[in-house]
Design goal:
Pfam families: MFS_1. This protein has 11 helices and no strands. The two termini are 29 Å apart.
């Protein structure tokens, strides 16, 4: 849906001067109102936890709970306490997931905030740059669906996260250092394909390897919080004085993809080692305290 934003922004900007309000103000007013309205509507449709749902029969609910229990043993939410929060925060892998999300979000924020500016730097007019900001999102739909499908089919995450990070890395390199404007524009397609595709991949990777609702709540909050920092970083490193190439900002995004790849390698090695030791019966207790649980690599 991010690809629609530039088109909406262009349409709303045509209201410039209406009721004495500037075009950019109309963008904030209308898109903000839509967001608030959808938030209110979603409240009535988002389902509760499986044990609290209001649309399944008792037998269907029991089946869902049994599947969750067989899968990871946390069908019923456990209470969140201060002690649990600090205990979960002591798990370095949660910080790794959050940092991975920060790294991939950095290129996404850069794309969302600055692609029209970058396109203007490539020689396009402001209006044409806004319209050309939408196409790079189109291939992302196909690549995200493909990598989601193949990772579920193979029950493997890490390698596909790395592949998408490499795709984004190529795109960032082309946009930063290529001399031909068309090649630089091609790079934005690859940036999106890699960065946006890794958002669900990393969130799923983290979710697969966390047991208990309290730990998942801490992991989700930490991941989203660190991801939000990427927006602050993006607004800092993409400076107007660096136009038209914005190489400092793009270089930071390139480095972030390298950090992401390193972190995936570290967690994969760590989880593979623990899985092996668990299968060999060399651990004092089950992984994540759940008998039969193994980490998803």
């Amino acid at each position: 849906m991010g690809g629609i934003s530039p088109l909406l922004a262009y349409a709303f900007s045509l209201l410039n001067g209406k009721r004495g309000i500037s075009g950019w103000q109309w963008i904030f007013i209308i898109e903000g109102a839509i967001t608030i309205a959808l938030g209110v509507i979603a409240w009535f449709f988002i389902p509760d936890f499986p044990d609290q749902n209001r649309f399944l029969t008792s037998d269907e609910t029991a089946l869902v709970l049994k599947r969750i229990e067989d899968d990871r043993g946390d069908s019923i939410p456990d209470s969140i306490t201060r002690e649990k929060v600090f205990k979960h925060l002591g798990d370095w892998t949660l910080w790794a997931y959050g940092t991975m999300f920060l790294c991939t979000s950095l290129s996404n924020y850069a794309q969302a905030y600055f692609i029209s500016i970058i396109l203007e730097g490539l020689g396009y007019s402001a209006k044409k740059a806004l319209l050309l900001s939408a196409p790079p999102y189109i291939p992302t739909i196909a690549t995200t669906l493909f990598f989601s499908w193949i990772s579920d089919k193979t029950k493997h995450r890490g390698s596909f996260i790395v592949i998408q990070a490499l795709i984004g890395l190529v795109g960032l390199t082309l946009t930063a250092f290529a001399h031909d404007n068309h090649v630089r524009y091609l790079g934005t397609f690859l940036i999106n394909a890699g960065g946006s595709g890794n958002v669900p991949a990393i969130l799923t990777y983290a979710s697969n390897n966390v047991v208990s609702h309290s730990k998942r709540s801490v992991q989700s909050a930490l991941t989203v919080s660190l991801g939000g920092l990427s927006g602050i970083i993006a607004t800092t490193v993409y400076r107007a004085k660096d136009a038209p190439h914005y190489r400092p900002g793009l270089s930071v995004s390139i480095g972030a993809q390298g950090v992401l790849i390193i972190l995936v390698g570290m967690t994969t090695w760590h989880f593979n080692r623990l899985n092996r030791l668990s299968r060999e019966g060399k651990l004092a207790k089950p992984l994540e305290g759940q008998p039969g649980f193994f980490y998803t690599l």
